[in-house]
C-alpha cells in the first residue's frame, strides 16, 4: 500500500548555510530507499532512525517515499524482525506525540521487507517499484541503496543494482557504502575498480560517519567565519601542534574476526582522523559549493604530507586482546596477533604554512576514557613571573570537541586568551553556564564555548546529506585512494612490529604517553619495545629471538628453549672474553628452578666452555645444610658442577653452616664470604651474575620491605624470606651492581603478570627489589621467555 503525502514544496537542500552544492538541486517525485542488510545491527541502531527523520523532514516537500529492508532471509522470517526494529524509531522533541504516532504509522505502511539474494529478487524489486510508480501515476525522483553489508558483497550487489535496479530516465541513483573500503591501497583500488564497473562516481556515497558529526561538519564554517582571527595565527609561527584524538574505553570482544584483520590504524585513523586532519589543514576553497575545489584542496594536503615510516608511529595492544583472539579465532594459546589496538602517529604537512608543525593522530581501545577531539595548541611565548593563573599565561587553544569525555556534549571551544569566535548560525548557540569541568588543561570557564542547539546523530545528518546530494560529506574514490596511499607504506612498515602491551583502562597510567623528537615519535617510557629491525632479520611472525628494551635495559626474548640457548651462549662468550683478558672468569649463579634448563644446557652443550678458569659463586643460599635438596648449592652441584670439569677449589658455596649451626650472625658467615670475594674477585666485580625474580619482585634473597638500604656497603648479608626456610644469605645490591654483566632470567606464564607490572612500576627497591638491580658500570640484560612476556 502506498500513502502519498503531498503538501508544500520546499527547497530540497533544506538546511541552508555554507555547505550547499547547487549542482544537486533536484526535482521532487518518488524516492525508493533500500537498505540492503536492513535488519542488521547498524540498520537497527542508526539507519532506520535516520531514514525516519528524513521522512519526517520531507513529509511536506512534495516527495513521496517507499522503504525497503533487503536481506538474505526469506520474508516470512525477517518481516516480523524488521517491524520490531521500525517500532523503535522516534521523533525529535519538536514533533507532538499525536503527530509522531501518525508519522510512525505512515512510515510503517511505506516500509516492507524483501529477500534480496538472487538477481531475480533484485529484478522483482525493480518491477515492484515501477509498477507502483505507474499505479500511483508518480514521477520518479531517485533510488537510494544503502549497502549495510560486509564489504566483500559490495561488488556483487552493485552489479545487480546496475543490471536490474537503475531508475527511470532522469531520476538519480545513489548507492551508499560503509567502510571498510579495502585493506590497503591495492585492495582499495581493486574494490574501487569493481564498483566502477557498475556505478558512476557520482552515484557512490562512501560514508565516513565522522563527517556527519556536527562538530566535524562545522570545522570549515568555523574556519571561514573566523577567518579574520585565524588568518594571522593559522601557521607554523603560532601553532605549537595539532592533536586529533579518538579514545575509546571498549574492547573489541565479539568483533575479533573483523578487527584482527584491520587494527586501529585501518579502523579509524586512515579514515576518520585523516579526514579531520584534512579539514583542519587544507586550504579553504574559494567556492564552498564546488565539490571539485574542495576535493582538489584536500588532495593537495594529502600529497604534501611527509611520508609516514616506522619512526612516525608507535603501536600498542591491550593485554586481554591476545586471549580474545585465541578464543574467537579458535587458535592455540601460543598464537600471537600483532594487530594494534592503539596507535599514535606523527604526521607533518610539508607546506610553508605548516612546516615543522607536528600533527598527532591518536586512537585506541581500552583507554581511560571515551572522548574524541581535535585540538590546535598555539604557542604561548609569555612568561608569567607571579600569577600563573592569569588568563594570558594559560594554554592558548582551539578544541573541536566531538563529544563524550568530561564535557559530555559536542562543542567548539576557543580559549579566552585567543579571540571570541563568531557565532556561526542559528543552529549553534553559545554556552555560558558551565558545570565545573576542565577540558584539556583549562577550566571550561576559560573558554568561549559553542554547541549545537540540537544534537543530531551523525547517521541522521549524513542520510539527509545523501538525500540532498551533498557529496562533500562523503569520500570520493580519489580521496579514498589518496588516503590509502598515505597509510599503506606505514602499515607495511609496521607489519612485524611488536605492539606495546597495555593493561587497559586507568591502569595504563603513563604507559602510552608519547614523546616527539623532531619528525620521530616514540613512547615516553621505555618498556617492552620491540621493532622488527631489532629482531635480527628473522621473519616477523616466526619469533625466534627478539631483542628490545625492558625497563630501559636491553631485553632478549624467545621461546624458552631458544632463550636458554641464547643465555648459555652469552655466558660462554663472557667467559671467553674474561679468560682472554684476565685469565679467569667469575660467575655468580642464583638458585631456584628457573635456571635448571640453563644448567643443563651449559653442562650438555658447551664442551669448549673454559671451566678450568671459571670460578662459580653463589648469588644466594637458603640456610639449610648444603647437602639438603633445598640448598641452592645442592641443585647447582647436581645439575651443573658434577657434569663439568671444574676444579673443586674454584667452587664457592656460601658458608651458611658454621660451628654446627645455620646462619647465626655471630659466626660471621656473610663476612667470610665477602672476604673470599674480595680476595679472589678483582675489584669484587663478578664478570657475569645470573639473577631470577620471584612473584613478589624479590631477586637474589633480597625481599620486599626488608630494609635493604640498611645493609650499607657490605657485599653479603643475612636476610629474611617471607617463605620457608626464612633465613637466607645473599649478595647485596652493592655486590650485584658492581658486576660487569647481570642477566635477569624470567621464564614461564606464571611470571607474565609480574612482567607486566614490572614494565610499569618506577624504581622502588623496597617494594620491588628487582628494580634495585642497576649495574653501575656494567650491563643489565633481561632474558624473558615469551610465556612470561606475552602471557
Ligand atoms: C524539528 O526539528 C528538526 C530537526 O532539527 C527540523 O529539521 C525540523 O524542521 C523541525 N520541525 C519543525 C516543525 O520545527
Ligand atoms: C552497467 O551495466 C551496463 C550494462 O548492463 C554496462 O554497459 C555499464 O557499463 C555498467 N556500468 C555503469 C557504470 O553503468
Ligand atoms: C561555485 O560552484 C558551483 C558548483 O560548482 C557553481 O555552480 C557556482 O557557479 C560557483 N560559484 C562561483 C562564484 O564560482
Ligand atoms: C576449533 O578448533 C577445533 C580443533 O581444530 C575444532 O575441532 C573446532 O570445531 C573448532 N571450533 C570452531 C568454533 O571453529
Ligand atoms: C683488575 O681490575 C682493574 C680495573 O678494572 C684492571 O685495571 C686490572 O688489570 C685488573 N687486574 C687483573 C689481574 O685483571
Secondary structure elements and their pairing?
Elements lengths: L29 E7 L4 H18 L5 E8 L3 H13 L9 H13 L1 E5 L3 H18 L3 E8 L6 H11 L7 E6 L7 H14 L5 E3 L7 H4 L1 H7 L1 H4 L8 E9 L8 H26 L9 H13 L9 E6 L2 H8 L13 E7 L9 E7 L6 E8 L17 E9 L6 E5 L12 E4 L6 E2 L2 E2 L3 E6 L5 H11 L8 H18 L5 E3 L11 E4 L2 E4 L21 E6 L2 E6 L1 H23 L2 E5 L6 H10 L8 E5 L1 E3 L9 H8 L11 E2 L4 E2 L2 E2 L6 H12 L7 E4 L24 E5 L6 E5 L1 H4 L4 E6 L5 H7 L20 E7 H5 L1
Parallel strand pairs: 1-2, 1-4, 2-3, 4-5, 5-6, 7-10, 8-18, 22-33, 23-24, 23-29, 24-26, 29-32, 32-33
Antiparallel strand pairs: 7-11, 8-9, 9-10, 11-12, 12-13, 13-17, 14-17, 15-16, 19-20, 21-22, 25-31, 27-28, 30-31
Bound molecules: 2-acetamido-2-deoxy-beta-D-glucopyranose (5 copies).
Total E-strand runs: 33
In terms of DSSP E residues, the strand content is 15-25%
CATH topology of the largest domain: Dihydrodipicolinate Reductase, domain 2
Bound molecules: 2-acetamido-2-deoxy-beta-D-glucopyranose
Overall tally of structural domains: 3
Distance between the termini: 61 Å
The best one-word shape is elongated
- Unreliable stretches: 1-25, 528-543
What quaternary form is this?
single chain
| Computed CA radius of gyration, to the nearest angstrom | 34 Å
Give average pLDDT, whole number: 89
Biggest beta-sheet profile? 10 strands, mixed
- What's the architecture of the largest domain in CATH terms? 2-Layer Sandwich
CATH superfamily of the largest domain: Dihydrodipicolinate Reductase, domain 2
**Helical residue percent?**
25-40%
The computed structural class is alpha/beta
CATH class of the largest domain: Alpha Beta
Lateral arrangement of strands in the main beta sheet = 14-17-13-12-11-7-10-9-8-18
- Summed up, the helix count is 21
Amino acid at each position: 500500500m502506498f500513502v502519498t503525502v503531498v503538501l508544500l514544496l520546499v527547497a530540497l537542500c533544506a538546511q541552508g548555510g555554507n555547505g550547499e552544492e547547487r549542482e544537486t538541486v533536484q526535482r521532487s517525485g518518488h524516492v525508493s530507499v533500500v537498505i540492503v542488510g536492513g535488519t542488521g545491527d547498524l540498520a537497527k541502531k542508526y539507519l532506520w532512525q535516520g531514514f525516519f527523520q528524513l521522512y519526517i523532514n520531507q513529509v511536506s516537500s512534495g516527495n513521496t517515499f517507499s522503504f525497503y529492508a533487503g536481506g538474505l532471509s526469506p520474508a516470512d522470517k525477517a518481516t516480523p524482525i524488521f517491524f520490531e526494529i521500525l517500532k523503535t524509531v522516534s521523533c525529535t522533541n519538536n514533533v507532538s506525540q499525536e503527530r509522531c504516532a501518525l508519522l510512525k504509522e505512515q512510515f510503517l505502511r511505506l516500509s516492507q521487507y524483501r529477500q534480496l539474494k538472487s538477481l531475480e529478487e533484485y529484478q522483482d524489486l525493480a518491477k515492484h517499484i515501477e509498477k507502483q510508480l505507474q499505479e500511483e501515476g508518480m514521477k520518479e525522483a531517485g533510488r537510494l541503496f544503502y549497502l549495510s553489508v560486509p564489504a566483500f558483497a559490495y561488488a556483487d550487489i552493485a552489479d545487480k543494482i546496475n543490471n536490474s535496479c537503475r531508475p527511470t530516465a532522469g531520476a538519480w541513483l545513489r548507492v551508499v557504502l560503509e567502510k571498510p573500503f579495502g585493506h590497503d591501497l591495492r585492495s582499495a583500488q581493486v574494490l574501487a575498480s569493481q564498483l566502477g564497473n557498475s556505478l558512476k562516481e557520482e552515484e557512490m556515497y562512501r560514508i565516513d560517519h565522522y563527517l556527519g558529526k556536527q562538530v566535524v561538519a562545522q570545522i570549515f564554517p568555523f574556519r571561514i567565519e573566523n577567518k579574520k582571527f585565524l588568518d594571522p595565527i593559522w601557521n607554523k609561527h603560532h601553532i605549537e601542534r595539532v592533536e586529533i584524538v579518538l579514545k575509546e574505553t571498549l574492547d573489541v570482544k565479539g568483533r575479533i574476526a573483523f578487527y584482527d584483520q584491520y587494527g586501529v590504524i585501518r579502523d579509524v585513523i586512515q579514515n576518520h582522523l585523516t579526514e579531520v586532519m584534512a579539514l583542519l589543514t587544507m586550504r579553504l576553497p574559494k567556492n564552498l559549493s564546488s565539490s571539485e575545489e574542495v576535493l582538489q584542496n584536500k588532495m593537495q594536503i594529502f600529497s604534501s604530507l611527509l611520508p609516514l615510516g616506522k619512526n612516525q608511529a608507535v603501536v600498542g595492544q591491550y593485554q586481554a586482546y591476545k586471549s580474545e583472539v585465541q578464543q574467537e579465532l579458535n587458535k592455540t594459546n601460543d598464537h600471537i596477533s600483532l594487530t594494534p589496538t592503539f596507535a599514535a602517529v606523527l604526521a607533518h604537512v610539508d607546506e610553508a604554512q605548516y612546516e615543522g608543525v607536528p600533527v598527532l593522530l591518536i586512537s585506541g581501545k581500552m583507554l581511560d576514557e571515551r572522548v574524541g577531539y581535535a585540538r590546535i595548541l598555539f604557542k604561548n611565548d609569555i612568561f608569567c613571573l607571579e600569577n600563573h593563573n592569569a588568563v594570558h599565561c594559560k594554554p592558548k587553544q582551539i578544541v573541536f570537541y566531538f563529544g563524550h569525555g568530561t564535557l559530555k556534549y559536542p562543542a567548539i571551544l576557543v580559549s579566552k586568551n585567543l579571540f571570541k569566535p563568531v557565532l556561526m548560525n542559528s543552529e549553534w548557540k553559545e554556552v555560558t553556564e558551565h558545570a565545573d569541568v576542565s577540558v584539556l588543561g583549562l577550566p571550561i570557564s576559560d573558554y568561549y564555548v559553542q554547541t549545537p542547539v540540537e544534537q543530531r546523530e551523525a547517521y541522521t545528518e549524513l542520510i539527509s546529506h545523501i538525500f540532498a546530494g551533498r557529496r562533500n560529506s562523503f569520500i570520493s574514490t580519489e580521496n579514498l585512494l589518496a588516503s590509502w596511499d598515505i597509510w599503506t607504506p606505514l602499515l607495511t612498515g609496521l607489519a612485524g612490529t611488536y605492539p606495546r602491551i597495555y593493561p587497559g583502562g586507568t591502569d595504563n597510567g603513563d604507559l602510552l604517553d608519547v614523546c616527539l623528537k623532531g619528525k620521530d615519535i616514540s613512547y615516553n617510557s621505555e618498556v617492552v619495545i620491540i621493532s622488527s629491525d631489532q629482531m635480527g632479520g628473522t621473519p616477523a611472525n616466526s619469533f625466534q629471538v627478539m631483542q628490545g628494551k625492558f625497563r630501559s635495559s636491553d631485553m632478549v626474548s624467545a621461546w624458552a628453549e631458544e632463550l636458554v640457548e641464547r643465555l648459555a651462549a652469552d655466558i660462554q662468550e663472557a667467559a671467553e672474553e674474561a679468560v682472554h683478558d684476565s685469565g679467569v672468569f667469575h660467575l655468580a649463579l642464583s638458585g631456584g628452578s628457573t635456571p635448571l634448563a640453563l644448567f643443563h644446557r651449559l653442562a650438555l652443550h658447551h664442551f669448549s666452555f673454559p671451566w678450568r678458569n671459571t670460578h662459580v659463586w653463589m648469588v644466594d643460599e637458603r640456610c639449610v645444610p648444603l647437602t639438603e635438596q633445598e640448598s641452592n648449592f645442592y641443585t647447582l652441584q647436581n645439575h651443573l658442577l658434577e657434569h663439568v670439569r671444574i676444579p673443586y677449589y674454584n667452587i664457592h658455596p656460601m658458608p651458611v653452616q658454621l660451628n654446627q649451626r645455620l646462619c647465626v650472625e655471630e659466626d660471621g658467615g656473610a663476612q667470610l664470604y665477602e672476604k673470599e670475594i674480595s680476595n679472589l674477585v678483582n675489584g669484587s666485580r663478578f664478570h657475569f651474575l645470573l639473577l631470577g625474580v620471584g612473584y613478589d619482585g624479590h631477586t637474589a634473597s633480597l625481599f620486599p620491605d626488608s630494609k635493604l638500604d640498611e645493609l650499607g656497603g657490605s657485599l653479603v648479608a643475612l636476610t629474611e624470606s617471607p617463605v620457608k626456610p626464612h633465613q637466607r644469605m645473599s649478595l647485596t645490591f652493592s655486590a650485584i651492581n658492581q658486576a660487569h654483566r647481570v642477566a635477569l632470567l624470567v621464564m614461564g606464564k606464571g611470571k607474565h603478570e609480574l612482567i607486566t607490572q614490572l614494565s610499569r612500576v618506577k624504581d622502588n627497591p623496597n617494594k620491588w627489589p628487582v628494580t634495585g638491580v642497576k649495574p653501575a658500570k656494567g650491563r643489565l640484560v633481561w632474558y624473558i621467555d615469551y610465556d612470561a612476556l606475552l602471557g
